[in-house]
Amino acid sequence: MKEDINFERLYYENYNIVVRICLGYLKGNESLAQDLAQEVFVKVWESLGGFKGNSKLSTWIYRITVNTCLLELRKKKYTSDKNIEDIAEINNTEVDARKENQLKKLHGCIQHLSVEKKALILLEMEDVPQKEIADILGLSHEVVRTRIHRIKNNLKKCILNGNI
Amino acid sequence: MEIFENLKNDWQNQSHQIPSDKEFKMVKNKIKAVKSKQRIMNVILLATVSILVFFFFYVSAYTQSRMIWGLTLMIVPLLVRVTIELFSIRKLNKVNRGIASKAFKDILRKYYKLRKQIHFVVTPILVGLYIYGFTMLLPFFKKELSTGFYNYIVVSSVVILIVLSIFIIKEIRKELLFLSEIKLN
């Protein structure tokens, strides 16, 4: 199986989503997320021999991403590498600054979630189908659906009131 | 749910991460480094085990010597602890990350429970043996060294032990915290 897969193509096709999932685990810290994404792809390469083709290749990559990010959490608590002033400087318009501020808040709220809830909501945000999320996390479709619904409410409360 | 849909929209419109050739090259370099690291790790493990075996036979020839026993009790626990640590890292790195997250967490839970036993059972025994070995050597130090240097060794060893204990306790707390975090789900 390893020989049949073009690792370079796989890297370029999945890089964006892998980094963004990592960003969610690392409170939006971009440079750390890129480093972690590199580790994810090293693990992907190492595990290619074990890929049996039972699931979609992307599902398998997201599993490695979620599991690698989970392991990263044992190291330390992360802080964002951007502050509000930087965001305002980078984005000239007020709307962009508001969006970035909202994203920063969202990253902060995601940090309050348990590891499983983090994975659920990050995959949902990336528009990964719920059936695939169930496959990635090893949960039933029904459980995924109900939990995502609950997390959405929690996040909404957190964004509005500042706590979960 | 409108608020959430807006959030999702903001999330999806955040800066697109574009993969560069430079970064891909870095991944390839890391893969090369992993390969050589595995080779180095095997050599270290083999060397550690060889030293342990050699030392055992070497020491057994001098069983009467209290000093040799003292040294043995200091060196062997250290080597054992380092070997356990190396095997632990290796074991964790070998866990298949391509499995479903739930199964992966079950493996991690088992792994960290084993680590807990290492921390709370094996490590205290090894530290006890190390301290016992050290106290066995003290009469020799007292006889052979000046009073000042002897006092220095005693005081500095206590300080080192305290600093090391604090470091180990911190690491253990970190691991226990992580264990409780993955137990939550």
How would you explain this protein's 3D organization?
- The complex is a heterodimer of chains A (164) and B (185).
- Chain A starts with 6 loop residues before the first helix and ends with a helix.
- Chain A is an all-alpha fold.
- Chain A has two domains: 2-72, Rna Polymerase Sigma Factor, Chain: A (Orthogonal Bundle); 86-161, Arc Repressor Mutant, subunit A (Orthogonal Bundle), CATH 1.10.10.
- Chain A is globular and about 45 Å long.
- Chain A has eight helices and no strands.
- Chain B has 185 residues and is mostly helical.
- Chain B has one domain (30-183).
- In chain B, helix 3 runs antiparallel to helix 4 and helix 4 packs antiparallel against helix 5.
- The model of chain B has no long low-confidence stretch (mean pLDDT 84).
- Chains A and B meet through helix 1, helix 2, helix 3, helix 5 and helix 6 of A and helix 1, helix 2, helix 4 and helix 5 of B.
Secondary-structure topology with pairs:
The complex is a heterodimer of chains A (164) and B (185).
Chain A: H1 7-25, H2 30-47, H3 57-72, H4 84-90, H5 94-111, H6 115-125, H7 130-137, H8 141-161
Chain B: H1 2-12, H2 21-60, H3 66-94, H4 101-144, H5 147-183
Helix pairs in contact in B: 2-3, 3-4, 4-5
Q: What profile does the largest beta sheet of chain A have?
A: none
Cα-to-Cα separation, first versus last residue of chain B: 25 Å
Q: Which series of helices and strands of chain B comes N to C? A: HHHHH
Strand fraction of chain A equals under 5%
What percentage of the residues of chain B does DSSP assign to strands (E)?
under 5%
**Structural category of chain A:** mainly alpha
Q: Quickly count the helices of chain A.
A: 8
Q: Describe the largest sheet of chain B.
A: none
> Percent helix among the residues of chain A?
over 70%
Principal-axes shape call of chain B: elongated
Q: Whole-Å distance between the termini of chain A?
A: 44 Å
What general form of chain A does the structure show? globular
pLDDT average of chain B, as an integer? 84
- Rounded to an integer, what's the Rg of chain B over CA atoms? 24 Å
> Any guess at the CATH architecture of the largest domain in chain A?
Orthogonal Bundle
Q: H/E series of chain A, N to C?
A: HHHHHHHH
How many DSSP E strands of chain A?
0
